[in-house]
């Protein structure tokens, strides 16, 4: 537990440092780097081998292009996606006797699933009109996912008795899941209150329509955040179990070792994979339809 706590503390410090540069391209560069590490972990998990390493190398320019959303380079995203698909087809034809199509298919599908998660974070940053609210939403997503994970870990450790999914993830318990769901709701409320206080102290609250609304209707707003947090925690659990199911089929304990006590990037972001895209869809819907209608 000591190792997990130290690693989590260091990770939070790094996250805080990255958020300092949120309004620069360094943020997208860090997200792209994290995404590429995740793709590399997936590549290793499916045991494609050194002879097909060029497949992973093909993901590098495509991931950089994907995370360039909001910059002039993003106009090449659709043709770039087509060219990358052609590249994968060519790889299959070129190494038809040695490349496992089933492993490649699993690796590409799982990688696309993860890249959608990281792209959603970049999308939210550029879709929101206010940098403070964009930061708040991204931190809220991580709070729902990682806060729920931590709450589930401690609840399961102290109260866990009944197994949640013994075949896929033998250490997860029903009591831990309940603790995680409730913990996500509570931590979401705390994160929101901190965001309101920080923007108020900076004199930027009036610029933040969402946070300003919450100060006008605090009871209703925090109740909504609590409920949304619980729903997102359920999605986090599903994402976690999905990644665990793939991991078990690949006969792995962890996807990587970059985080001592926690595993790899995949092991840390599996609970974010369904929450971030849902948040991106809601942000897109609100900014593209409700705001324009009003």
Automatic annotation (TrEMBL):
First-listed, main subcellular location of the protein, grouped into a coarse class: membrane
Tagged with keyword RNA-binding: no
Positions of transmembrane segments: 12-39, 59-92, 104-124, 136-156, 177-199, 219-243, 272-291
Pathway assigned to this chain's UniProt record: Phospholipid metabolism; CDP-diacylglycerol biosynthesis; CDP-diacylglycerol from sn-glycerol 3-phosphate: step 3/3; Lipid metabolism
UniProt-annotated location(s): Cell membrane
Catalytic activity as recorded in UniProt: a 1,2-diacyl-sn-glycero-3-phosphate + CTP + H(+) = a CDP-1,2-diacyl-sn-glycerol + diphosphate
Enzyme class: transferase
GO cellular component: plasma membrane
Gene Ontology BP annotations: CDP-diacylglycerol biosynthetic process
InterPro entries: PC_trans
Family: Belongs to the CDS family.
Name listed for the protein in its UniProt record: Phosphatidate cytidylyltransferase
Organism: Candidatus Allofournierella pullistercoris
